[in-house]
Amino acid sequence: MPRNTKNIKTNFKERHFKQKDTKGIEKKSTNTKGQKNKQKIDEFRQGEEGDNYNENLIEGRNPVIEALKSGRSIDVLFIQKGQVEGSIRQIIGIAKDKNILIKEVDKAKLDRITVTGHHQGVIASAALYKYYEIDDMLQLAKDKGEDPFIILLDEITDPQNLGSILRSCDGAGAHGVIIPKRRSAGLTPIIGKTSAGAVEYVMVSKVNNINQTISYLKDKGLWVAGAHTTGDTYYEKDLTGPIALVIGSEGKGLSRLVKESCDYLVNIPMNGKVSSLNAAVSGAVLMFEI
Asked: What phi and psi values does residue 211 have, to the nearest 5 degrees?
């Protein structure tokens, strides 16, 4: 369905670890292990403040395999001593073929440098994930002879959700994902694991302003659909043609300005007691409809 700006209807105006004693005096917790774990988690959730987390560690067997296969630039591969069976053998073989430096280290070292806590005996130190331009996504669609299909994320700060969404994007054939530079999860090691390696294949772009990006996509001929509980049932809408799907955060949904910028809103009907699905699941349902 080609975009026709004359037919657009715009009717959408629409645990820090300090404790207090009974006298209200703050005292430090003795749970130092918990403090360290929380600090690691917090570092991942600071994407809204910029790239102040370690994005260049790829942890776990499957994410490392996918990174190697995709041609990702790997500086060094850390393998746990004594781990030579199964997929580790495959990883070592690929790394040797690519002349990648391999270092055998004690499990204690891997435990010390891991951020996800689930390294499975292998961690790769790579160049930072590459961020793309929106035009790269549009060109990809053109090269494939397909209508552009782009996902915009409005303040998705949970890295688990972002990873799941990237995995769905890969499966549904989306040409890219756009995230804001602030108030958003970034491409961290957790994303590598939760996306099952899909982060290696899905283009991700960081932008300053989602609303301006929506306007840009409209100028490029895309229709913009927002996922929102007040929208029309998704299977009753024509979601074919060049389209961008906007998914909001679980706590807030779409921000007001973003919602008003969408050409139309769509919702997933719920038959149970819970009013909505989480962001990643909602996104998957809608992506595969498109």
From this structure: -60, -45
In this model, does residue 17 exceed pLDDT 80? no
State in words which class domain 130-289 has: alpha beta
Buried-exposed string 51-72: b where 16+ CB fall within 10 A, e elsewhere:
eebebbbbbbbebbbbbbeeeb
pLDDT at 43 over 90: no
- Split at pLDDT 50, 70, 90, the class of 19 is very low
The span from the first CA to the last CA of the chain, in angstroms, equals: 12
Cα gap 223→220, rounded to integer Å: 9
Comparing 131-140, 167-176, 244-253, the range with the smallest average pLDDT is: 244-253
| Structure token pair of residue 119 | 């390294």
The set of residues, in sequence order, having a beta carbon less than 8 Å from that of 214 and lying 6+ positions away, is 152, 224, 244, 246, 258, 261, 262
Q: For residue 123, which of 100, 145, 143 has the smallest C-alpha distance?
A: 100
Instruction: Give phi and psi for 206, each to the nearest 5.
Output: -105, 130
Residue 24 phi/psi, 5-degree rounding, is: 85, 10
The tokens for 236 are: 């009753």
Q: What are phi and psi of 76, to 5 degrees?
A: -155, 145
Name 59's bridge partners.
Answer: 123
Q: Which of 232, 45, 230, 221 is nearest to 142 (CA)?
A: 221
Percent of the chain's residues with pLDDT above 90: 54
Q: Where are the domains of the chain?
A: 57-126, 130-289
- The SS3 call for residue 171 is helix
User: What average pLDDT is seen over the chain?
Assistant: 81
CATH architecture of 57-126: 2-Layer Sandwich (3.30)
pTM for the model: 0.63
